[in-house]
Predict the 3D structure of the following.
Amino acid sequence: MQTSKNNTPTLYLIRHAQSTNNANPEPERIPDPPLTELGTQQAKALSTYVPNIQPTHLLTSPFLRTLQTTQPLAASTGLTPHIHAQLFEQGGCYSGYQAIGKRPEPGLRRKEIEDGFPGWHIDPTIDEQGWNKLPQYESTDMARNRANHVATWLQSEFHSSPARILVVIHADFKLRLLESLLKRDDIEHAFGPVINTSITALRLEPSGWRLDTWNSHQHLPNQWITS
């Protein structure tokens, strides 16, 4: 796993640990699932490895599964997580499934996050109505547009810094963000499944973002690998 060189930032895009939705069939899934017991083990294994990267920043999606994955990372690195409202999974927070329709749900409310994860920096747009402001299920095109905004923000925020930024996100939005950062439209077909707690590293060069590592999961025993 490579780290930043000189004054260039490195992004480490991390998929959350296994959630109950990952383990259950679609009709049994819920809007904002917690981690499974295996997911908790995966997150702890990740947290023992990540200090080797010497991260300087820790960003996370507002979904419960990403917050729970981030919690041991915060403990092992000493970093205060920043909950970024725009890092949520493609589709947003919703109930239902394809056969019966998908309806937006609010996601965790600010007080719920404050109580469950005290001291973390919470995006000011997250209020007592929840973080999900989408009026409908988010399409792939809408997610790509959001990924472009997030990519622009990341480059603007860290472009001249030797920062090493951990970003705890989701499988589909990770692909959308890679499409934007690498300016490729074949990401979904070029790479295999995104493994839970896997790390994808990118370094910013004068020509743009360069992919250093894809889907690294060396911190996981073989029997703990899920996608």
Q: What stands out?
A: The chain has one domain: 10-224. The helical segments are 20-23, 37-49, 64-77, 110-116, 140-158, 171-182, 187-190.
